[in-house]
Amino acid sequence: MNARRKFLSVGAATVAALGATLVTAPDASAGSMRGCDFPRVCFYKTQADYDANRPTAAYKDVTSGFQKLGSRARGAVKAVNSRNDDGAIVKFANKPGTVCIQADSWWHFGSDVVTHIRIVDSPTC
């Protein structure tokens, strides 16, 4: 009987320890920002998409040159960079130059029509 109590006691302690571990496990969406899962740069075609945390397009690859945005990202009103240590450079159809969307930040394009992206291995571009 004494051995059985020891066994049950150890078993209960193990279950309690596992339960505590499960309760304190990190949330899987901790690297997400406005519905943009880590490690991505997400675009939102409308303000309603942004408000609903519903990106319409996402890019994740570091590239050596600019990528032309697809129809779900081109002309977006906002972008979110959920990457921790990579910036995103974007180009526009209606203005010269580029803009850097720094790591862990967002950008409102206003009347600028975004057309290209380049994700770079630098948080400040």
Structure description:
With 125 residues, this protein is an alpha+beta fold. Helices cover 22% and strands 27% of the residues. The chain contains two helices and eight strands; from the N terminus they run αβαβββββββ. It has a four-stranded antiparallel sheet. A four-stranded antiparallel sheet has the order 3-8-5-6, with no helix packed on it. A hairpin with a 5-residue loop joins β5 and β6 (98-101). It is globular and about 30 Å long. Mean pLDDT is 82; it is low at 4-30.
Give the arrangement of secondary structure elements.
Layout: H1 2-24, E1 41-44, H2 47-51, E2 57-59, E3 67-68, E4 78-81, E5 87-92, E6 98-101, E7 105-108, E8 114-120
Antiparallel strand pairs: 1-2, 1-4, 3-8, 4-7, 5-6, 5-8
Low-confidence stretches: 4-30
Number of helices: 2
- How are helices and strands ordered from N to C? HEHEEEEEEE
Mean pLDDT: 82
Let me know the largest β-sheet. 4 strands, antiparallel
Strand tally, please?
A: 8
Biggest β-sheet: strands ordered side by side in the sheet? 2-1-4-7
Distance between the termini: 69 Å
Shape estimate? globular
Structural class: alpha+beta
CA-based gyration radius = 22 Å
Helix content, binned percent: 10-25%
State which percent range the strand residues make up: 25-35%
